[in-house]
């Protein structure tokens, strides 16, 4: 009887410890993810990156060229989708992403994988969000667009 009672007490103790650890992880993970994700990006750096990587095929408010005009793209598309498409357009197409496939069908030229990092893509998006003005600060989430 004593052994069974002691085992039950130890099981309860371990259950409580495991519960506290799980709760701690749940409470800490969102904080760590938010800290790892930059709150604001550098729109000036984004302008330089846009000029270096994007301007040959895209404009902002001047119409389609080889690729689509990017004016308002940050309002039409989800930030996570945009970052994935900027950083890994080949993988987006290979995955069968409907939007990426539609863009390829419309423009007949696949977006090249230019080796842009996620942070560089976020800077480009900050610039695209406010191409003529002060440095833009993006929220971590944007609503999905068409």
Descriptive terms for the model:
globular; 146 residues; disordered C terminus
- Beta-strand residue fraction: under 5%
Helix content: 55-70%
Shape: globular
Biggest sheet architecture: none
Q: Indicate the low-confidence ranges by residue numbers.
A: 17-39, 134-146
In angstroms, what separates the terminal alpha carbons? 66 Å
Short description:
This protein is mainly α and 146 residues long. It has helices at residues 2-36, 43-54, 73-76, 79-87, 89-94, 98-107, 118-129. The protein has 7 helices and no strands.
Protein architecture, described:
With 146 residues, the protein is mostly helical. Helix content is 60%, strand content 0%. The chain is built from seven helices and no strands. It has helices at residues 2-36, 43-54, 73-76, 79-87, 89-94, 98-107, 118-129. The protein is globular. The model is unreliable at 17-39 and 134-146 (pLDDT under 50).
How are the SSEs placed, and which strands pair?
Elements: H1 2-36, H2 43-54, H3 73-76, H4 79-87, H5 89-94, H6 98-107, H7 118-129
Helix pairs in contact: 2-7, 4-7
